[in-house]
Amino acid sequence: MLVVNVKKSNNIIEYVKFNGHALYDDYGKDIVCASASSIYITTVNAILSFDKDAISYNKDNEVINLKKDDITNKLLINMVNMLKELERDYKKNIKIVEE
How far is residue 71's CA from residue 89's CA, in Å, rounded to a whole number? Predict the structure, then answer.
């Protein structure tokens, strides 16, 4: 199962972490993983189009800094909402956990 952990503090998203695999189908054919990946990549690209310094990574491509401004937060909220829609259709394959 793909588990997406979302941490909020005062209605600001602190981080979103993706763990696991949806196991809907084989790697490369899994529409749930492909959908979640597309949602994530589209959101990151949108955030970076507004502010190229809004997200920074370490050498392992893990997010180490996420700007906590209004645009970034709205885009992240939109991402979480889209992931929740995916979760409604594929409950056995993706789970959103809000901390």
Answer: 28
Give 63-99 pLDDT, tens digit per residue: 778 899 999 999 999 999 999 999 999 999 999 999 8
CATH number where 27 lies: 3.30.70.1490
3-class SS string, 40-60: HHHHHHHHHHHCCCCEEECCC
> Based on C-alpha coordinates, what's the Rg of the chain?
13
Regarding pTM above 0.85, the answer is yes
The count of domains in the chain is: 1
Residues ≥6 apart with Cβ < 8 Å to 77: 13
Which residues span the domain enclosing 22? 2-98
- 76 neighbors 54 (Cβ within 8 angstroms): no
The first and second tokens of residue 62, run together, are 């893990």
Rounded alpha-carbon distances, angstroms, from residue 56 to 14, 60, 62, 92? 14, 11, 8, 32
